[in-house]
């Protein structure tokens, strides 16, 4: 099963330090990404109501900048999902850039999935 790389950019109205906490900690991720998140070392266990549990490993990160996870099902592949904070040097606008991989036929569904997650995140941050 070959996946394609997809990238999204969302303008966020918040401080980068606060946004990073929502991206890199189990407590923050459980506020918007999944119903419950448990962190054990570099492994994060995501639980959704009615959807079971999935494990992702934190494979790269830079404090206050980005996190990259790999789902358990993607171990041994180049696939990952990454959340990157970008601040425009001229305007000082903050964006959250997402890189993910999905099957070609799932592009639209993947985009809607991330849009819904980001809407949840903005509500939690008060950054709508």
TrEMBL record:
Gene3D superfamilies tied to this protein: 3.30.530.20
Domain START-like residue range list: 2-127
Domain of life: Bacteria
Pfam families tied to this protein: START_2
Protein name as it appears in the record: START-like domain-containing protein
